[in-house]
Amino acid sequence: xxxxxKPFIVSVTSGKGGVGKTFITTxxxxxxxxQGKKVLVADCDLGLANIDIMLGINPELNLKDVVFGNMHLRxxxxxxxxxxxxxxxSSGVREMAQLLFEKIQIIKDMLLDIEGYDLxxxxxxxxxxxxxxxxxxxxxxxxxxxxKELTSLTxxxxxxxxxxxxxxxxxxxxxxxxxPDEKNGLSIFKNIDSISRRxxxxxxxxxxHVLQDEAVGKSVLKQxxxxxxxxxxxxxxxxxxxxxAVLDLKKA
Amino acid sequence: MKPLKKTVQSSPEVxxxxxxxxxxxxxxxxxxxxxxxxxxxxxxxxxxxILTADIPAEKRTELLKSKKGITLNPEDNLLKRLxxxxxxxxxxxxxxxxxxLTGFYNKRFLNKQLKIEITRTKRTGQPFCLxxxxxxxxxxxxxxxxHAKGDEFLINVCHLICEKIRPTDFACRYGGDEFxxxxxxxxxxxxxxxxxxxxxxxxxxxxxxxxxxxSSIGIDEFDVxxxxxxxxFLDKVDKELYNAKNTxxxxxxxxxxxxxANKAEEKFVTPAEKDxxxxxxxxLKQKRK
Lengths: 252, 289
Hints:
A: alpha/beta, eight-stranded mixed sheet, B: Alpha-Beta Plaits, five-stranded mixed sheet, disordered C terminus
């Protein structure tokens, strides 16, 4: 366990909504936790947070109490059944959906101050709103989730492009979610990778794929974490591979 | 009114500058004077009078202890003088931040407001724009037709700007024929189209008055990542104005690089990129069939 140095911050983002950011975040966090890493997940979809729903919990305090109350980020952290800790956020609070830049900076500064974790995973909202960009900017590494839909590819590319144009980011990792087979995942990655090389001038990094699996739908319905409910499933295997790739990024 | 006047003569007077009208009403409720008068907010927004003849002694001392109250001798016309001073004060305040000829804000106000806008941008993340307008060949009016005509031209331009300016923007006279406009919560793309509008309006005023004057405008955006101080940013926009002046005048100059980035942000993914993504996915689709 590496608690003395600063945690490695990874954001999970996508551009398009509904491609599985929160699913990837919770399952990746649980996988890393099972490997003995100390992991903190922050729900950074400030307007429509839903990690708490995915986990079937109802936290008393959340990010809203940090932004509009006098709480510190540390005060709202709770342990979860996934073996990782969570900073929950609120859903349906309009003020949280349109935070002043200043408030976003306060959250960012507090996140940077947190110690005692190997990794912090930031689950961002959809879209390319300033708040999403700011959390991506804060992270050491951005994971962009794509699936086989053309709209998800276009939106993922838009995210990469705006992070590059506005902040000069040139390092992005891709996870292909909900793909029929390994080959298909690699093929959609190659597509977006070649366009990034051609138009932006830098390659993307492939972290791996998550297969289509009925275990996913089942566990989401039951508010459980798929890799824990089905530890021997193909997707648990996928997440093991992805988690190794993430830890490699951390070392690099 | 007459009985009231009698009371005034027979009792000491207390003038209150209360924090608010409501605040004073609360005080009045507490002390319950039988013959109290509260000047309406409209008459005197900040000065209120309580006649204290019937206020019990202990309550009166309490009132007088209040930091906001002062006792007045009714024989003295101090109250009248205070009111006049207050009026004078307000007049001076407006003088201290407006330009006499045009009624625009002056340089002092500009410097103050610019700092406020920078702070606001850092808080909200919303950029603002600032533009320098300088009249080309303005001296020629003064030289040919005299200063009165020059002043008339300035006043006409300023009237037009006052009429058409967005209610949230600030127009300031920076120097003789130099104006600065601060546009809060404005992106450069918006700012440029507004600059172009001012540029055209000034051409119209010049045509109406049959003088050969145009304008050079420099404009730039202050966004949340900008670390310049107020004076440095002002200098930067001033340089943009000089760029307009040095490249033939009669034009709007803006930092092209930034606009390019802005335009790209508008159209995140270009048609060529979309096309490439689509083509890249096409074989996949066929395979699935």
